Amino acid sequence: TAAATWAVLGGTSLGREARAVGAALGAGDLAAARERLPHLCGRDPQALDEQQIARAVVESVAENTSDAVVGALVWGALAGVPGLVGFRAVNTLDAMVGHRSPRYRRFGWAAARLDDVVGWPGARLTAALAVLAGPDPRGAWRVARRDASRHPSPNAGPVEASFAGALGVRLGGTLAYAGRVEHRPVLGAENRPVETADIERAVRLSRRVSLLALGVAVAGRAVGSVLVNRTVKRSCTGG
Questions:
Q1: How far apart are the C-alpha atoms of 185 and 154, rounded to whole Å?
Q2: Least crowded by CB within 10 Å, which of 5, 41, 221, 235?
Q3: pLDDT, tens only, 208-220
Q4: How many structural domains compose the chain?
């Protein structure tokens, strides 16, 4: 119950923030979109145009579907409330100091690696469900299989690549984080650039993935409880 509540709240907040940026872009208010973007991700919005902001939102929706929703459900199913709280603590720590910086280089590196470990199962489940739930399963599978490993993050790669293929858009490329520029490989290079309308499409895909993940988590938790109860009964009988 706690995991489901946490995940639902995370998914609702994610969709709300993404749609707020999309609404600003749709109204032609680039300044408002730039002001709202930091609520979703840590990129520097000032140098971004409409297409780049839309791309940043779609990428953030994809990654946060894994981090804020599916990953929480996975760890809630595996370890209950302690697993859920521990996962979110690691995820928050990585968001705060995980990016490379001289001040937090060693501590940030450790936080990022720990986040990679705990985020691994949720990212794979998110990617798989995006392939199944997306409008183009074949395209999602093709791009995810081909491009996921090209991403510098072992967890963001599968998720963003599967979303890129499912939505038929091109993700990745040059990113700016507080004065630091990264040139990442393009995911789904054969697809078209992201448009403002794709923000809503990404939010809807995120919601479908989240609902499927909730079903998987509930089923997994139920099966786990049955197996534990059987083991306990056998132990008591044997004793």
A1: 13
A2: 235
A3: 999 999 999 889 8
A4: 1
